[in-house]
Amino acid sequence: MVFHSILFEKPEDGPRRDDAPEPVFFGDLNLDQIVSAVTIGRDDYTLKPFFHTELAREEAITYRHEVMQDLDNVAVLDSINAFAVGMRKMRQHLAQAEKLHYRLQSEWWLLEAIAVYCKTLETFAHDLPLAAPVSKGLREFQRTLSGYVASACFQSLMHDAIHIKESLAAIRYCIRIKGSAVTVLHYDSEIDQSADVLRIFDKFKQGAVKDHSAELRDWLDMNHVEARVLDFVAQLHPQVFIELAAYCVNNADYLDATIQTFDREVQFYLAYRDYIGICKSAGLSFCYPRMSSTSKAVHCDEMFDLALAHKLAIEKAPVICNDCHLDGKERLIVVSGPNNGGKTTFARTFGQLHYLAKIGCPVPGRNAVLYLCDRLFTHFEREENTKDLRGKLQDDLMRVHQILAHATSRSVIIMNEIFSSTTLTDALFLSKKIIGEMLERDALCVCVTFIEELAHLDDRAVSMVSEVKPDDPASRTFRVRRRPADGRAYAVSVAELYGLTYDHLTERLGL
Question: 466 and which of 12, 95, 185, 337 could share a cystine (Cβ 3.0–4.6 Å)?
Fold first, then answer.
């Protein structure tokens, strides 16, 4: 089978264009923060379009899972990292060749780039089979790489580069400087007298003295004198420089497209591994989710908001994990509870899980079973936009209308505190209508709300509540549990804390 891509099992899995835009829900789910942090320091690879492209097939996701799991093999990881280092060095040499003004010097750096390229691939073709990858993607690439390195084209490219480098290294010449005249001559076994000069002057040393030597920087670019010297050397040894020029012209497009694509795409895996490595070091778990495009059961233990956890792990602060599951005909999670108790974070986590799973990455949590949705939709509270002259309620309704216009039975919808700008009665009426429509479509939904009645709308809805410490209702645990909503219990506990219950008040007032 012909190798296509280490990221996309089939051509149709890939993005339609290389500048895939950021999905509209990224900001709501903090996925923009995750992708920016994952790709930092890897601008040369233009990785963001890969993180913006969702996969639609279970097999395409499994393809990535296998490659990512192969990288847990230290030998595989080391061989790919060594390959990446070599390719970076090659690109640096190429960039240097393009910047230089003198043709002969530029040709040397192109030759050096090709030599590094050949050595890198020769080593990689040797090391990768020894590492014994088992993923379909890496095994197919290994066969392609071995075939390319063994090809007459590559062997000629490599051996010609070695021959020309050896010929250039063998050149010897002399420089005679008299006044302002510089003469370049053939080397004729002249004696190197520098050792004799140092020996003669050694007798005049007066012990250890301060070193007044000035450090001369070795600039890559040549000045005009150095360039003329090189021209003269080329005139004295024309054959090897003619070979160099012809080699550079004939091999200007030496870089194989498949190798170049692999070099870029494999960074997707390396970048994500590096990012989650900080969280793993803090003791947090990641897993490869079981994906299904038919079953809508959802399950994940110890899940967490990846963007928040990464920040907390750097600060060495604790991360609170939560569990989530939907079984049978359950489709809606209604999350309620006190403000700042972790409700929105829970909703974001649910969205992150499904998106990261759709791009074939390990997800934050354990034992994840997720639905392969067609699209993700989010509706999070936003500030009023004074430019469009729409009120907040109207804006909420228009955004929900857009979601309902495009959502299907295979969609995942996450809503956070909608209709908070209107009365409780109106908010309840509108929420019932909208959630009823989503349930009618059989979409998976998470709804963060202050309206507890929504948890009792339908037997397909389940209630989850953000908890507080029983002995200190003002303190949040940031744990979200599956249990019936009981806002009154929370209100009573707060009233008791501040001595504002009916009994406390009547006692203080002497009634």
Answer: 337
Nearest CA to 373 among 417, 433, 331?
331
CA dist., res. 320 & res. 288, Å (int):
20
DSSP string, 146-199: HHHHHSHHHHHHHHHHHHHHHHHHT--EEEEEETTEEEEEE-------HHHHHH
What percent of the chain stands above pLDDT 70?
92
pTM: 0.88
What does the alpha-carbon distance between residue 377 and residue 393 come to, in Å, rounded to a whole number?
A: 19
Q: What is the per-residue pLDDT across 252-300, written as a single tens digit (0 to 9) for each? A: 999 999 999 999 999 999 999 999 999 999 999 999 999 999 999 999 9
For 401, the token pair is 């209308």
Kindly state the DSSP code that residue 4 receives in the 8-state scheme.
-
CA distance 29 to 352: 6
Residue 58 DSSP one-character state: H
Q: Residue 198 pLDDT more than 50? A: yes
> Using one digit for the tens of pLDDT, what is the confidence trace for 64-85?
999 999 999 999 999 999 999 9
Beta strands 461-469 and 332-336 are: parallel
Q: Does an H or E element contain 500, and which? A: none
CA atoms of 119 and 113, how far apart (whole Å): 10
Query: Would you list the DSSP string of 302-338?
Result: EE--HHHHHHHHHTT-----EEEEE-TT--EEEEE-S
Residue 459: C-alpha distances to residues 128, 297, 451, 466 (Å): 54, 15, 17, 21
pLDDT in tens, 390-440: 577 888 889 999 999 999 999 999 999 888 777 888 888 998 999 999 999
What class has domain 283-509?
alpha beta
Beta strands in 454-497 (DSSP E): 461-469, 472-482
185 phi and psi, to 5 degrees?
Answer: -125, 160
The pLDDT mean for the chain works out to 90
pLDDT at residue number 389: 42
Sequence-separated (6 or more) residues with CB below 8 Å from residue 15: 49, 50, 52, 53
Enter the tokens of residue 107.
């040709």
**Which residues does 194 contact at the CB level (< 8 Å), separation at least 6?**
none
> pLDDT > 90: what percent of the chain?
67
Distance separating alpha carbons of residues 353 and 374, to the nearest angstrom:
14
Is pLDDT of 492 > 70? no
Tokens of 117: 């390229």
Q: Name 373's Cβ contacts closer than 8 Å, sequence gap at least 6.
A: 354, 358, 410, 411, 412, 444
**What does the alpha-carbon distance between residue 168 and residue 108 come to, in Å, rounded to a whole number?**
10
Q: Which run of H or E residues covers position 216?
A: none
Q: What are the b/e assignments for 416-428, b being 16+ CB within 10 Å?
A: bbbbebbeeeebb
